[in-house]
Amino acid sequence: MRNLRLDVARGLLMLYIIVAVHGAYWLGVGTGAGEARSWMLFEMPCVFFVSGYAYALSLRAGGAAEGAQYYLAYIAGRAVRILAPYWLYAAVCLCMLFLKGGASAAAVAAWLNPLQFGQGHTFFVLNAHLWFIAPYLGVAMLMPAAARAVGRRPPALAALMLPGALLILAADLTLHTELGKNVLTYAVWSVLGYAAGAGGAGLTRARCLQLFALCCAMLAAAWSRGWISLDMQANKFPPNPAFFLFGLAWFCVWSVAARLAPESMLERLRAAAWFRPFVEHGYSLYLWQGLGYTLARYVGNRVDAPLALVWVLAILFTVGLGMAAAPMESLRFSGQAKR
User: Fold this and answer.
1) Which of 184, 80, 199 is closest to 142 using CA atoms?
2) Is residue 169's pLDDT more than 60?
3) What is the mean pLDDT of residues 21-49?
4) Cβ-defined contacts of 316-320 (< 8 Å, 24+)
5) What's the average model confidence in pLDDT over 41-60?
6) Are the C-beta atoms of 18 and 286 separated by less than 8 Å?
7) pTM summary value
8) Which residues, 6 or more positions from 204, have their beta carbon under 8 angstroms from its beta carbon?
9) In whole angstroms, how far apart are CA 330 and each of 84, 85, 86?
């Protein structure tokens, strides 16, 4: 059975990433906002929270499964579902490089390796978003063990936030790779989502407001002493404790807002034809937005189109390409445990 609020959250996040975040950072929409533009970059903590929440619901629906056989089947299944659509996208991008005369054995190796995601062999924004693939797969590999550590009856979210913050601080001080910091940071968010989905007590409205004020105060104090920048783009790559506090503040905002949304409005939104692709094929749309924006910029340059038209074309190309490639998301490893 579909979860209404989870579906709407997934769809809204993907819509926000494709339209707002990458419209701003890839096309320069709203560049006049300066550093404040980076304060819209709350999407990735929310994506991984929703992913952890969905994992908890899948375990509740399918029953707990443990042991090496389950884990290997789970990892193989997740790898196929994540990497097969990615490799299709990579193959198309390599074809474009070939047409531009930039294809080589090194380019093929770079694109097929999700740790490299085509770096050094790309143009415009074909691969600008693909940093996400390796952390996404890494967090998926950690989730069975993390869920077991948290337990079937997890503690309240508030009880997990301080250990999560300390873990991210330790990672910031000790890990020296962006991938490691990405995986650990977003694993914390996925565990918070898992705890919420598994029945852990959420935050009351009053607690959300208190936590929001605390996070803002801590960020302001750290900034005033020159310890951090308020440019969240810099704090996001790689994610640091300031970015975690920033994510928590936004999480509080959306936790309060979600309580105010009536079910009838959410049902109408999920049923809307224009919204369904963002719910049902979000991963494919995420992948193909790189090509969608690249093609829109190419067309826009050829006909000297205004920025608004290029933006609309980028969204339309993304949705069309993503829906065409969406069947790749249905591939399953033959031994995958059903969830």
Assistant:
1) 184
2) yes
3) 90
4) 316/292, 317/291, 317/292, 317/293, 318/18, 318/285, 318/288, 318/289, 318/291, 318/292, 318/293, 319/277, 319/285, 319/292, 320/292
5) 94
6) yes
7) 0.94
8) none
9) 10, 9, 13
Whole-angstrom distance, CA of residue 157 vs CA of residue 255: 12
Does the N-terminal peptide bond of residue 238 adopt cis geometry, omega within 30 degrees of 0?
A: yes
Tell me the two tokens of residue 17.
């990433």
Distance of CA 59 to the CA centre of its chain: 21
What distance in Å separates the CA atoms of residue 52 and residue 192, rounded to the nearest whole number? 7
SS (H, E, C) the chain: CCCHHHHHHHHHHHHHHHHHHHHHHHHCCCHHHHHHHHHHCCHHHHHHHHHHHHHHHHHHHHCCCCCHHHHHHHHHHHHHHHHHHHHHHHHHHHHHHHHCCCCCHHHHHHHHCCCCCCCCCCCCCCCCCHHHHHHHHHHHHHHHHHHHHHCCCCCCHHHHHHHHHHHHHHHHHHCCCHHHHHHHHHHHHHHHHHHHHCCCCCCCHHHHHHHHHHHHHHHHHHHHCCCCCCCHHHHHCCCCHHHHHHHHHHHHHHHHHHHHCCHHHHHHHHHCCCCHHHHHCHHHHHHHHHHHHHHHHHHHHHHCCCHHHHHHHHHHHHHHHHHHHHHHHHCCCCCCCCC
Query: Minimal CA–CA distance to 286: which of 232, 328, 257, 228?
Result: 328
Write out pLDDT tens, residues 189-248: 999 999 999 988 888 999 999 999 999 999 999 999 999 999 999 999 999 999 999 999
Identity at 7, one-letter amino acid code: D
Q: What pLDDT shows up at residue 100?
A: 87
Q: Which residues of 152-164 are buried (b: 16+ CB within 10 A; e: fewer)?
A: eebeebeebbeeb
CA dihedral 41→185→189→289, nearest 10 degrees, is 40
